[in-house]
Every structure is written in C-alpha cells, then in structure tokens.
Amino acid sequence: MQQKITDDKLVLVASIGSAHGVKGLLRLRSFLENPNSLEEYSPLLDQQGLPRFRVTLQQMFPTYCLVHIAGVETRAQAEQLRGTSLYINRSRLKPVVNRDEFYIIDLVGLCVIDLQGVGFGVIQQVSNYGAGDILQIRLQENHQELFVPFTKHFVPEVNLNDGYIVVNKAELEL
Description:
Largest sheet: 6 strands, mixed
Strand content: 35-45%
Mean pLDDT: 90
Low-confidence stretches: 1-7
Radius of gyration: 19 Å
Number of helices: 3
C-alpha cells in the first residue's frame, strides 16, 4: 500500500490529455514555467496525494509535451488516464528568486487589507484570461466576489510571511 502524503498543499502541475500512438504515450499539458522539469518532480501525485505517475518526457511541443508514464504500455491504458490531474507537494517547488513573483498557491487564502490596514476579504483564486493575473477576493461583509488586477497599482504590497496583501481600494469601483 502506498503512503499518502498529507503534510503539504498539493500543487497542480499538469493534466493528461489524449493518447498518442499505440504504445501508451500521452499528451500532457504542463503548468510549470519549464515543462522540462516534470521529470525532476517524478513521481507525480494523484489528487489524493499518492505518488502514482513516473513521467519520462519524450518530446516537447509549443502547447503540450509527449510523455511516457511507467506502467502505461498500450493506447487503451493511456486513454483511461485522459483528464487526470497531476500534482506535487508545495515544498518541492523551487524557491522564488524575484521578490515580485509568487506561486498562486501561496496567494490563495491570504487576508486582504486596505491602505489603512483594515481587513476586508480573502483571496479565493488567481486567474489569468490573457491580459494578466486577476485576484478573486471574497468580501467579508457581504460574501460577494471582487476581482482585482494583480498589479503594483492595485496591490502595492504582498506579505507572505504575515499572510496578507494590501489592496488600494480607492482605485476600485466598489
């Protein structure tokens, strides 16, 4: 029986697409900045945190990569994995070098305060629809959602150590 890893947050790093060919190769969409690092993190985890997927990169393409997963030898086996999400533990991610870069998982759950230090919400999600990152904030007073561009103009401070971000509410239409 495999040991379940429970001491860390799971970070989504890839999702399995369709089978490729007859020998069990899979198309994989990587969410890592450098998809080549997938092998470094192998074995990748399933959504329960169990190490199940030993990945070997076969070929890189602009929007996906071809991989072999240990134990998957036929197209039928590969097709059964279609849509599977692959994870790693947060502690395995490389440290962020630039102080203005953050892992999304580190932002989710942070308290949101205004310039006067008054808390008014919590980050629920970080999305990017092509024009930059957007923070989805659940407001404390009415539980509605507020969407804030994740730029220095709107978010002048991020303090991961103390668990909050500062949002310039004066610039938002509330």
